[in-house]
Amino acid sequence: MTQINRRSLLAGSALAAAALPVAALAKAPPAGKQAAGLYRYKLGDYEMTALYDGVWNRAIDDKFVRNVAFPQVQQALADSFLPTDKLPIPFTTLLVNTGARLVLLDTGTAGQIPGAASGSMPENLAAAGIAPAAIDTIVISHFHPDHINGIKTKDDELVFPNAEILVPAPEWAYWMDDAKLSTAPQALKGNFLNVRRVFKNVKVQQFEPGKEVAPGVTSIAAYGHTPGHTAFAVASGSQSMLVLSDVTSHPWLFLRNPEWQPAFDMDGSLAVDTRKHLLDRAAADRMLVQGYHFPFPASGHVTKSGANYDFVPVMWQLAI
Amino acid sequence: MTQINRRSLLAGSALAAAALPVAALAKAPPAGKQAAGLYRYKLGDYEMTALYDGVWNRAIDDKFVRNVAFPQVQQALADSFLPTDKLPIPFTTLLVNTGARLVLLDTGTAGQIPGAASGSMPENLAAAGIAPAAIDTIVISHFHPDHINGIKTKDDELVFPNAEILVPAPEWAYWMDDAKLSTAPQALKGNFLNVRRVFKNVKVQQFEPGKEVAPGVTSIAAYGHTPGHTAFAVASGSQSMLVLSDVTSHPWLFLRNPEWQPAFDMDGSLAVDTRKHLLDRAAADRMLVQGYHFPFPASGHVTKSGANYDFVPVMWQLAI
């Protein structure tokens, strides 16, 4: 059998390059861009569409996971073929077409996360053949900018002009509390102000977690990541699934190590409890899950082995 | 925290359905179909496009893996959230745009696998903006129908009219040998005849595995799956990758259990040796791999733990 290694491959490549005719061009130029990031599946009578918004390659250091030494985090990143000095954090929103209503769970970034290569959700929605004006309902999981900034353009225009906007009541209570803003640590103040910017002159309806927020979409209190962070169960016909929101960020890190407390989680200990509770349920019931920061299409199943979990991505289907 | 389970989800759904206005329809109808299956990435100066051709949900029984009891196979399927009575076998071809040439590695099924939901590669090629006539070179890994049938339509027209077609010499020698056809077991005769149908009146060039077959694309003898089965190394600039062809079929089964001998592998023992040799290399060098029967986009990395391997799917990138 031919022995291959990097050296022989590169030698082969150099030879090939030398032999290339100079002026020849392929009959199709390189596209230079990624294909549309949308993925559809059925849940009972509902049609679900995962819409990719992009990725934030966030620089990380020894403060990124509070309760674990950084080399251990870097090893987990290397084991997952990810860079060890930054975490690629993808964003994927989920659109539920109930047949009667278009319900969007979180809105993406609108390209308003400094340093992130994101904001492609509206483009992917267009590729799915859906106009922003067709969205009936937006349901927000929590008030971090990558989940709410897509509500408005940079010029404060509503992106989805006809959509009612539903937000978790405890999330609203926390971030709109001027007393909490005034005593917040400096690192949090920006988020308080961003929440105020996004929701200024915007009509919202608050919901209590545990209630149904749209037909077949039930909110689930999942506190810890933020004070009012909410997951969702979606059910149609005999099928149901769990939308994890930010119960866990990148699965290769935080499903495999559910005790790790990322700096994103405002109450790290409560977030660990929430994570284990919902992941136990997902694993035991073999439920389909969708994770906002899971690799696109961000859909799959959770397994449990001992005290840890793992993620089995869904197989891309040809028909839905 | 709200307790959720299947029963409460379904109850919620039933209530929701009862409350729905009867005549209301969403402003966008369900699409009813999957999004285009194409995924682009850069390898040095080359632009790679993974093109999804579909999936064959192949019924399996205790003959499917020769050297393992069927319940063990079924457990591995269940652990991967796959059905236990059939294996979903996806097909993904790989297009290499070198800038000067469009090189297609294997051709998909052309919808000519009875019972398979496949043949979407040309549609996805069109979605990528590439005409079939633009393909300069087709390189075939081996002569199973899901790899060669895409060369011709059912009416024996060439699908890629301008492409030169390169095939492994040992594969040609085996399947075109009338003596081997006449003594072949009944189950293999159909494949001998299909090979003759596909290549009838088609001009091909044979290559010896180990040779460069297109600029930067080097063939690698990977015998066992078939007598002349071939993998490929692709290199451009400082980057290289390994195209596994059918060195391993579904990774959740045969990367995790490299000693398992699927009925597809004509020489099961030799195929195991080849599998371990190439997977060892891929894991040690942390090479990007593409697997023809891996879940779309069929691209990622191989890890090794003890005697077994695992697959880490690539993270979908927004920019390429």
Main attributes of the structure:
seven-stranded mixed beta sheet; 9 helices; 26% helix; homodimer; 320 residues; alpha+beta
Short description:
The first copy, chain A, is α+β, with helices and mostly antiparallel strands and 320 residues long. Helices cover 26% and strands 28% of the residues of chain A.
Task: Explain what the structure shows.
The structure is a homodimer of 320-residue chains. Chain A has a domain at 36-59 and 89-245 and 268-301: Ribonuclease Z/Hydroxyacylglutathione hydrolase-like (Metallo-beta-lactamase, Chain A, 4-Layer Sandwich). Chain A has helices at residues 6-19, 70-79, 121-127, 145-148, 169-175, 178-183, 186-199, 251-254, 268-284, and strands at 38-43, 46-59, 86-97, 102-105, 117-118, 137-139, 164-168, 204-207, 212-214, 217-221, 230-236, 239-245, 288-291, 299-305, 308-313. By secondary structure, chain A is of the alpha+beta class. Chain A is built from 9 helices and 15 strands. In chain A, strands 1, 2, 3, 4, 5, 6, 7 and 8 form an 8-stranded mixed sheet that branches. In chain A, strand 10 and strand 11 form a beta hairpin. The model of chain A is unreliable at 9-22 (pLDDT under 50). The two termini of chain A are 42 Å apart. The interface between A and B is large, with 97 and 99 residues.
